[in-house]
Queue: 4 jobs
Job 1
Amino acid sequence: MHFVRIVFCNVCINSLHARIGWIRSSCRKKPILWNYTTILLYFPIKLNQEQMMKLHKNGINKTEQHLLQQSVTLLLNLEAKMSENFVGKYKLYHSENFDQYMKKIGVDFATRKIASALSPTVEIIISGNVWTIKTTSTFKSEEAEFELNKEIELTTMDGRNIKMLCTLENGRLIQKQMAIKAGDKDTEIIREINGNEMLTICKCEDVVCKRIYKRE
């Protein structure tokens, strides 16, 4: 059974999120589909004759090509909608275990005490494919600019030099921060929008911090 027939089988898959999951996992099993899905995700154009012939030679018929194009369009629309939900400015109003999280990543005692007393503002801006997250407080401020699924290097507010990769998964913005310097910690920050609130989960090894921001 071909990939697209599996993806769009209404008996097996009855939600858009499930379809997207099947698209991604099935593409990884069949490289030619993964290659073309990747191209279409970043360059949403119709397949030309040469590309369609190449797909045909790899066992993908015209109907499947059309459904592949549709699946990519669905994915683009879904990710665009999920992205829009994050745009705005948010003020911290609740925090749990932040001191332990900072201690785990190596922040000194004095800085932890100052940071724990602050209520920073986070602003998220999206322009085209570029995301900007601005974190502002009376003590320190930070601005991170990135594109989804593209690794960048930056320095965090706590002074770590990291490689950061951001992805959008099931409505959550996931930031993986990989330490460059030996001895520094890897961390993960997960953001999720719930109505007028933004839930932020910060993880470092066995320590988990929860911070809730309210949209201004």
Job 2
Amino acid sequence: MQTFSYSRLKLYETCPQRFFYKYVKGMQEEVTRPLALGKAVHKAIECLLNGFSVDESVANGIIDVNFHEEVSREDILYFLERTPFGNLRGETELHFRTPLFDYENSPEIQGFLDLWDRANNRITDFKTNYKPYHIEDNYQLALYAWAMKKVNNLEGDVKGSLLFLRQRGVSSTTFTEAKMNEAVTWARNLVNEIRFKLELLEFDSTKQNELFPYKPSIQCEHCPFAYKCFRDNPYPVKNTIIGEINYDENND
């Protein structure tokens, strides 16, 4: 595995086994309404910022999620009405890809910036979450800031903002060198751990559950692999939202 993203690393940190099912075994996850809605809204915002009409932007959002049955025109318009377009400028959906380490053939980190204001070294990310959070609660934008600074040979700090569209809320910060280095150290440590485990797995493929263990949490409620995960692990799980689950290999 050579290419990583923030979401891939965060999934591994949250539950190594779900990461294994999705990114190593290539098992597909259903496109849920929240995922489809977020993707459609991002596409519509991108189109509006690039001169498309509202109708064209909404249509492109719906097309981008393959006419997902749970995403409507009204859903997208709801978020567009809450987007502060007058304050937004820059390059939209900007893709980056850069080596994560300084050695030859280094693993790479990649991602997409919702909005990159090159003149002001500012990253803006749009969120359709129900629950807002502080921008420094995770490493997503700090890691993006490090990558953009590296790709563009920038000097100084990078600004970042999360726009929570449902609440019309904003969480902003300035990513200093120390904050960016903390984020990239987090990413490097996880990448090294994942790659080491994958090497071990090549020697003994029966160790997948030990190398990529499951982590029962509230996230299990929304995981498409939850049932398979608990069936594949020969230990009962206690004190979770699912309760105690006893493994029985003869029980279908």
Job 3
Amino acid sequence: MSRLLGVFFLLLRPLLGMDEETEAQRIRQNVGFACDLAQESLGKDIVSLRPLDKATVENNWSLSCVQEPACIISPVQAEHVSQAVRIISAHRVKFATRSGGHSPNPGWSSIDGTGILIDLSGLNNVTLSGDKDVVSVGTGQRWGNVTAQLVPHGVTVVGGRVPDVGVGGLILGGKNPPNANKTLLTRLLVDHQIVTADGHINRANRKENPDLFWALKGGGSNFGIVIRYDLRVIPLPRIWVSAYAFALSQAPAVIDAFVEWQGTAASDPLSTVIFRADMDAITIGLIYLEPAFQPEIFQPFYRLKPLRILGPSANFSYTYLLDVASSETSQKRARHDIRGISSRIDADAIKQVFRFWLSRAQAVHAKTGANQTFDLQPVTRNLVRQGAANGGNPLGIAPVDQIWWTTVVDWESAAHDAMVRSVSIETTEFWAQLGRERHSDLPFIFMNDASRDQDPISTYGPASVDKLRQVANRYDPRGFLQQQQNHGFKLHKVWRP
């Protein structure tokens, strides 16, 4: 009987293959119709058909994300996005949106020939209000340009620490800035202009669509395409900065100093520390958010003997801090990945995880040349409480002092993808297990540090997830974004206990 079933299946295979081929042809034909209609409606300046400009197609930070779409829609005003959404929805084709293209997760900001790419880089206005209190920023702008345009006015905005990162994706993940002890970026959001699933152009702020305003501060791209952010600016500060390099063998002492500092950091919210280890050394950046001289809060680090001093301890402009911080992230054209986890402060656990990570990262580096980092981001309970202001957010972060660990991974060959990524995957698994044993684990995963196989929204907690689903159902009752958006941290994929 089983033999007969096998023969029957073999006879059916050509027919099944024909069905699959027919379906693929139907999808490509349908997306072709959508592209043609979009170009007819919006014009050739806005919609590009194949053959596409190579530089535009490849405008992704990670080579693992580069794909060629069926066509590219490049809106320069809100109405273009509105019309694009209506056309894509009506033809039931897949699409992806790209702000800066800095996500290393394949398919988050790119799509192949079965879909349409909406390139938001043309939505790049930077407009400061007359009272110099609020700046309106197009979602396709990059943080370095935003800062540069505000400096002549003596103000700045809390944003991305890497100048080339796009505005849009960073904010939707609830991004914390390089001066994270000072304030959360989500606290400074004033308003959004967003195209929802029905193609309507809406606003989301504390008074108008407040549920959407709440959801957009960490809920990702589940609610529409945000085309403009209004952000409260801050006076352009001068800051004290000092930076050191330590040997990898000094990790236990450096981690002890980091933990000792963070234990007192809540008493001085002007202080923050950048901790990054790579294959060669540990870099420590001490930052004080006003002019100072050797702030006492950093005393645990002054007791250490560094390999070298990376620059003079002095007061600099805020833009200098951004220039220094931008050097942390590789801008090299390569394959990239990131990954994140959070934990209560536990020096012994951090040391164990560091040893675990370093042994594996060095072994993989020897085989593949891959570079990996070990980054500790301090988050104080004061910062978490600030996030609850200004309409709150869905992140569900425990109001305790904690660290967010992340890694940035760079490598060359697609053949090494699994081996290279195994280091960060095993590291987060080890840390989670160790945290459970030591009662120092925290569930939260920061979306902007999450890798493709992680599920950050589920870590916000059941109440936040349920509310996010309610908001999504209100503004997208037909599930357009869940079904037709290519990839991303989508609500319908969130794990249910």
Job 4
Amino acid sequence: MTLSTRPLEAGEAAGAARRAALSFGSQPDEELVEQWRARIASGQVIGAVDDGEVLGHCRVTAVDHWFGGRRVPTQHIASVAVPPEHRGRGVASALMRALIIDGQRAGLGLSLLFPATTRLYRKLGWEHAGALQSYRLDARRATVGGPVMRAVDGDGDWAAILACYERCARATTAAAVRDDELWQRRREAPYAYVLPGATAGTVDAYVLFAHAHAPGDWQYTIQVEDWAATTADGLRAVVGLVAAHGTVGKDARFRDGVPDRWSLLLGEPDVRPDGGMFWMARGLDLPTAIACRGFPPGLSGTATLAVDDPLLDAASGPWRLEVAAGEGRLTPAADAEVMLDARAVGPLFTGFRSPAELAVAGVLLRGSQEALAWLTGAFAGPPPTLVDFF
């Protein structure tokens, strides 16, 4: 078998829908075919082909993410679909190997994905690098006072919501820069509220939600589809509005980082984890990733490092990492004090794992205590969190 990869064509949408249905447990109906036809038309779908037959495919897009208050270009890989009759033949591995090269050549700093299986991606250099976490709040027990939010009223409020999200995203680690399509889906939420800011045309917080009823249950769950708060009053307003549903709304489900922020306002531990998963990251164009990322403004210094990356020679180095005034630069070096396995790059870059943890796990292969301590400070920040599944 000789596999090659190429973008899928319009006439291959039905086959893509069938592969996706077999892989993810849905039905290959006309709606699914149209969904894949649109993705193919936008150039998002790459297939693995043997002798003219498409054996598997995946969806690939380029999206910026916030790291250290700055935007880093990343590759999203999703919907990796190989039907059962073609599994175990290296189809998914061939797709991933091609995308690693394509992403590096395109100048994308990282590759991100939500894994259905970890083993495959670890073999190819991805590693867990952050979390997507859902929580459940017992709304009947929560009592939080705060400013009163009002319902969204027109496009001006939506523009302020987008700006509020960006202010929050800049202050986090790994939040996505959202496109118009995602925001259009957010606007479909049945209920949308804002807390106006002190400056006209701004909001300090927003919350978008729906009500979800279980069969035969007259009470409902408040399904928070999106929220953000940039001030203490804003956070109290969001949690207070949700808690005010407590007479009939028995609980609320929302996403946040680890640990969540809502618990800070509650007298009792009324928030509990309610499902989540780790996402994975892999290094691609490392000089671009470092140049685009923000670093702690009070930190300066250098470290030399190399990466054992058999799939991407361009990432291997050795490199000199220089950090000053909140910015970083990665340039070729003569040798390296720190040696990383390819799997260590993603969790180090996002701050999900410290160099000491990576060393204990055997994926940071060499480095002095001084160098590891400096790298710990360089990549420190809020816990890396995604709230948008892709």
